[in-house]
Prior knowledge:
With 201 residues, this protein is of the alpha/beta class. The chain contains seven helices and seven strands; from the N terminus they run βαβααβββαβααβα. A hairpin with a 4-residue loop joins strand 3 and strand 4.
Amino acid sequence: MIGVAGGSSSGKTTISERLVELTGEQHLSRIELDSYYLDRSDQTLEERSQADYDHPDAFDWDLLNDHLAALANGASVPVPIYDFAQHNRSGNTRTVHPNRIVVVDGILVLYDRSLRERFDLKIFVDTAADVRLIRRLERDVAERGRTTESVIDQYLTTVKPAHERFIEPSKRYADVIIPEGGLNRPAIDVLLARVRELSSD
């Protein structure tokens, strides 16, 4: 099991997708921490939109750990599908099957101790704050229907404080730190070699 952590829009997804592409879906399963945001069906859309989604309390750690334990034991799991526009789980799931390699990526995957201890390899993607903000702004406006003002407000209110308090400190648990995320081709080549080693053990 491999954990890929780092700040919002640091390049975690790019690295995880690259590993899937180079290793093959038949050998690697991928789980995103974003799928495990808590179910907030008891709240209004307005209440959900005001929640802090960068704080550790926003995630269902028990469910994620249960799913990883099941995958490790050879069972498939129903991973929730998250609807970012509604700030809630969609009610649908996708089936993730056990594989030789399981990659878990998300901002806080190195924060939770019980989760961290499951990983054979822990990676932190280290990208400058201004680059991450620009990427997040472009993504949220284009893909999640957000306004520029709301993205910037959220960044200053919750994203940046959470990064400094929870995400950046978790870097000390990483076995490998990759500067500049998916743009760092040499680092990805080294990572891929290590993943192949693990998968052949």
